[in-house]
């Protein structure tokens, strides 16, 4: 089921899919995803005009600032264009000509975690087999830095220490290509957490617990345990997981 917003003067109709009201963190990301899906599926076509802001606000159950944030992101990526005095139009299909790096950097924090979790299982298992004593020392230092940042309620320091901890696990694999791939993915997570400090609320306890479990598995060189830890880790950025 779609709704159509008629535009005056013979301009193209605009369609928008009926969706459930957004309930996850990063509401703008969810709206971006819904609009991209509508365009990819042909429910919204190149040249169609988006409904006005009040209609989008009602349809998604969010405020004006959230709608504007989502639209700005899609305009920036070239999917939408703003015609001053007229409206916002679909200008391209999402993903056309995008590199993998572009897609990673535009993904939501919840999407990144899902991909990261699948990747981390292999990284942790390989690190447990190949780690050195120096790797363990670096991991303990990074884990301690995370604990100190959490105690001082310092989100920025926590994000940096958490990044160092997980990058050290990747380094412990002794696989240069894997480290480069992981750095791209984990760097995108770090950027989003820096830009959204509120997302880290309540996450630090989860992260510290994860660190301790991973440290134990790597210390024991137990690759299967390291993989199971990640397999059993829920996505902390989703409300309903």
Strand order of the largest sheet: 1-2
Rg, alpha carbons:
21 Å
Q: So what's the overall shape?
A: elongated
Please provide the ordered H/E string of secondary-structure elements: EEHHHEEHHHHHHH
CATH class designation of the largest domain: Mainly Alpha
**How many structural domains does the protein architecture include?**
2
* Count of alpha and pi helical runs: 10
How much strand content do the residues show? 5-15%
From the helix content, strand content and strand pairing, which structural class follows? Answer: mainly alpha
CATH superfamily of the largest domain: GntR ligand-binding domain-like
Which stretches are low in confidence, meaning pLDDT under 50 for 5 or more residues running? Answer: 1-14, 18-25
CATH topology value of the largest domain: Four Helix Bundle (Hemerythrin (Met), subunit A)
Task: Report helical residue fraction.
Answer: 55-70%
Mean pLDDT score: 82
**Termini separation:** 28 Å
Query: What's the total count of β strands?
Result: 4
Main beta sheet strand tally, sense and closure: 2 strands, antiparallel
* CATH A-level architecture of the largest domain: Up-down Bundle
Task: Report on the architecture of this protein.
By secondary structure, this protein is mainly α. It folds into two domains: 24-90, Winged helix-like DNA-binding domain superfamily/Winged helix DNA-binding domain (Arc Repressor Mutant, subunit A, Orthogonal Bundle); 100-232, Four Helix Bundle (Hemerythrin (Met), subunit A). The protein has ten helices and four strands, in the order ββαααββααααααα. The strands form two sheets. The chain has a two-stranded antiparallel sheet. α5 runs antiparallel to α8 (176-195) and α5 (109-130) runs antiparallel to α10. The longest helix is centred in the middle third of the chain and has 22 residues, at 109-130. The relative contact order is 0.12.
């Amino acid at each position: 089921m779609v709704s159509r917003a008629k535009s005056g003067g013979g301009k193209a109709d605009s369609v928008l899919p009926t969706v459930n009201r957004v309930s996850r963190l990063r509401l703008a990301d969810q709206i971006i995803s819904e609009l991209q899906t509508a365009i990819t599926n042909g429910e919204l076509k190149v040249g169609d005009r988006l409904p006005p802001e009040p209609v989008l606000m009602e349809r998604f159950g969010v405020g004006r600032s959230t709608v504007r944030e989502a639209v700005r992101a899609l305009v920036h990526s070239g999917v939408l264009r703003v015609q001053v005095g007229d409206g916002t139009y679909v200008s391209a299909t999402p993903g056309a000509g995008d590199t993998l790096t572009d897609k990673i950097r535009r993904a939501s924090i919840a999407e990144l975690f899902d991909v990261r979790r699948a990747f981390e299982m292999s990284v942790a298992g390989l690190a447990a087999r190949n780690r050195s004593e120096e790797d363990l020392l670096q991991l303990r230092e990074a884990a301690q830095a995370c604990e100190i940042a959490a105690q001082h309620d310092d989100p920025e320091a926590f994000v940096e220490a958490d990044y160092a901890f997980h990058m050290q696990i990747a380094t412990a694999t002794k696989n240069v290509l894997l480290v480069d791939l992981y750095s791209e993915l984990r760097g995108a997570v770090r950027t989003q957490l820096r830009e959204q400090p509120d997302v880290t609320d309540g996450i630090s306890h989860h992260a510290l617990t994860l660190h301790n479990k991973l440290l134990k598995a790597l210390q024991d060189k137990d690759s299967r345990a390291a993989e199971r830890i990640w397999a059993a880790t829920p996505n902390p950025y989703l409300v309903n997981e």
